[in-house]
Amino acid sequence: MSINEPLKRITVTGPPCAGKSTIIETFRKEFCEIIQCLPEIATILITQLRITPETKESSIVLTEEFGQALYHVQHSLEKLSEEIAKRTGKKALLLDKSCLDVAVHFLSIGKNLKEYEKEFNTPISEDYKKSDLVLFLELPKKETYENVRKNNFARRETYEEAKRIGEIYFNVWKNHPKFSYIENNSTWEDNLENVRKTLRAFLKI
After folding, report:
1. How far apart are CA 19 and CA 96, in angstroms?
2. How far apart are CA 29 and CA 160, in angstroms?
3. Sign of the CA dihedral 79, 81, 87, 89?
4. Dist CA 94 CA 197 (whole Å)
5. Across the chain, which distance is largest between two alpha carbons, in Å?
6. Do residues 65 and 45 lie in contact, with contact meaning Cβ atoms separated by under 8 Å?
C-alpha cells in the first residue's frame, strides 16, 4: 500500500450461519499479503467466556451489558487491526461485522437505534463512514443453516429467529452507499466466488 493511499475498510455482515466467518478465514489465507482480517468478536467473547447457549450463564448474551462490552471490544480491536494493517502495508481491513452491527444486538433485545446512537455517541451516518464497502450475505436455506449451526457452539438461534435477525441486519445496513447484497441461492463455491469477485473489483487486485 502506498503511504498516501488510505486503508480500505470492508465489513462482511448478515444473519447467523451465512458464511461470514468462513469467508474471513478463506481470504485471510488467500489475500494474506493484501488484507488484514478481524474475526467476529461476539463469537470470541461467547466461546472464551464460556457463555455458549447450553450454559446457565448464557443469558448474559441477551442483555444491554453484553452489547456494551461487545461494542467497546470491537472498537478497540478494529483500531488495533487497522494499525497492524498500516504497519504491514496491507490495502484493506476485512471485518466479520463491525461496531454498527452492535445496533442489531440492541434492536434484538428490544432497544431502538436512537438508544444505540445515544449509548455510544455515534449517529448511524457516522458509522456508515467507517466502512468503505459492505458485503451483506443472505441467509442460506434451512437445511444448510441447520447443518452449519450444529457445528457452531456459539449459535443459539432457530432458523426463524435467524431470518428475523437477518432482516434487522439488512435494515440497519441497506442505506449504506456501498451496500452489496450477496445472494445465497447457489452452491457455497459460487457464493464465495461472488464475494471474491466483488472484493477484487473494489480493491482493484
Report:
1. 10
2. 33
3. negative
4. 15
5. 51
6. no
Q: Percentage of the chain with pLDDT > 70?
A: 97
Sign of CA dihedral 27, 29, 31, 34: positive
Integer Rg of the chain from CA: 16
Helices then strands (H, E): number in the chain? 9, 5
Using DSSP's 3-state secondary structure scheme, residue 62 falls into helix
**What single letter denotes the amino acid at residue 111?**
K
Give the three-class secondary structure for 37: strand
- 35-38 β-sheet, strand order: 35-38, 92-96, 8-13, 133-137, 179-182
Beta bridge partners of 94: 10, 37
Each residue's pLDDT tens digit, 105-132: 999 999 999 999 999 999 999 999 999 9
C-alpha closest to that of 74 among 56, 59, 95: 95
Strand 179-182 to 35-38 pairing: unpaired
Say if CB 10 and CB 202 are below 8 A apart: yes
Q: Are 97 and 20 in contact (CB under 8 A)?
A: yes
Looking at residue 108, its amino acid is S
Give the whole-angstrom CA distance, residue 51 versus residue 68: 16
